[in-house]
Amino acid sequence: MYLAWKEQNKKRYYVIRQSVLSQGVYVSRDLMDLGHDPSVFLEYPGGRSFYIHEQVEEQLNASGTAWDYGDLEDVFWPFVSPDIKRSLQGFKSRDARNARIPELTHQEDEFIRNRLHIIDKRRYNYLRLGELDQSKLTRIPTKFYRPLAFKSRDELEHLFINMEGSLNPSEYSLYVYSFFYLRRFFDEIIAGKMPQGLDQHRLDRLFLQEVCRLDRDVSFWKGHARKKGLHKYLRRYVIMYFDYPFSTGNILQEHIRDFMARNRAGFEQPRPAKKEPGMEEVGTILGMSVQKLKKMSMRELTRIYRRRALKMHPDKGGDHEEFIRLNEAYQTLLKKIRPGT
Fold first, then answer.
1. Which domain holds residue 270?
2. Does residue 65 form part of some domain?
């Protein structure tokens, strides 16, 4: 069983669901509605403990489904009082560490090898391993994907949504780039580690192409009801990609450190840190008015910045001091532009 949610009248309502095998496909079914506040089903008898109201157990028994109390506790764990949660977290972590991990059954192995979608494997790789390069997929043991076995599309998506909650927003576009394996469309060496430097317009087109391809992929949506238009489970990736552009920090900060090391080595006294540039100076550096800068979206800013950064790169004849100031100007604007604009 697992915790799912649905939006109604701009409110989130929770429900206990279960993945079941139906005509050879795993589908989800509702077991119990929990309303908008599942914590009302929790009781605290005192001390460092809690229990789940017997009403929940009675309804699950009435549904005719087999269930485990440990799984039920996991469903309600997000709603447990923070104080109790802190007290019990150590025990849960120790139990998880000491738990014996059995070998895969034949059924698990078959499901993972032949029925688990490659997009699910890639997402899990990034979220568990931080793996940007998905070309090594075949080297990962099948057992690694055990938590994804025998789950409906709905359960898998709720699992991934929860896991994605641990991502830093600066990672969103890298995550999407990784699991759609967009690097396979590029020959450039940087495609494996620094997609920031790729042709952004082409990358955008390829991303939309792959999103639409997945939306039409019948094998991905097996057992899951579909409506017209892009599925809500994929819309979040469009938002991640377009509203949170690739951070230029990694690639450019590395370049800046290299240039500073090469050009300033041997100086006994470091140069005094420069103040953050004001909007007038930022406009001068980027070659546009302050009024225009204030109206720009983050996406537009990133594109303009990328073009100027490539042009002003010291390896292409640009001045390394101007390159550093360009980076500072960009970082200043990022603080002033709201993500999603």
1. 249-336
2. yes
**Single-letter code of the amino acid located at 251:** I
- N- to C-terminal Cα distance for the chain? 38
Residue 299 Cα distances to 204, 244, 246, 312, angstroms: 11, 8, 10, 20
Q: Which of 193, 212, 243 is the last residue of a domain?
A: 243
155: its two tokens: 């359960």
Work out whether the CA dihedral 314, 318, 319, 322 comes out positive or negative: negative
Helical residues (DSSP H) of the chain, grouped into ranges:
54-62, 69-76, 82-98, 106-114, 118-129, 153-164, 172-179, 200-215, 232-243, 249-264, 279-286, 290-295, 298-312, 320-336
Angle formed at CA 217 by CA 214 and CA 219, multiple of 5 degrees = 125
Does a structural domain hold residue 341? Answer: no
Separation CA 44–CA 81 (nearest Å): 9
Same-domain status, 221 and 276 = no
Contact 237, 170 (CB under 8 A): no
The overall average pLDDT reported for the chain is: 83
pLDDT at 267: 39
CA angle 66-69-74, nearest 5°? Answer: 110
CA distance 147 to 133: 22
Domain count, the chain: 3
Task: For the sheet with 25-35, list strands across it.
Answer: 2-8, 11-22, 25-35
What is the C-alpha separation between 193 and 189, in angstroms, rounded? 8
Dump pLDDT digits (tens) for 162-197: 999 999 998 999 999 999 999 999 998 888 888 888
Task: Tell which of 243, 267, 299 closes a domain.
Answer: 243
Q: pLDDT tens for residues 311-323?
A: 776 656 667 677 6
Task: Provide mean pLDDT across the span 60-82.
Answer: 91
Cα 24 from Cα 150, distance rounded (Å): 11
pLDDT at residue 317 in the model? 66
- CA quadruple 163, 167, 169, 171: dihedral, nearest 10: -120
The answer to whether position 7 is within a domain reads: yes
Q: Are residues 144 and 217 in the same domain?
A: yes
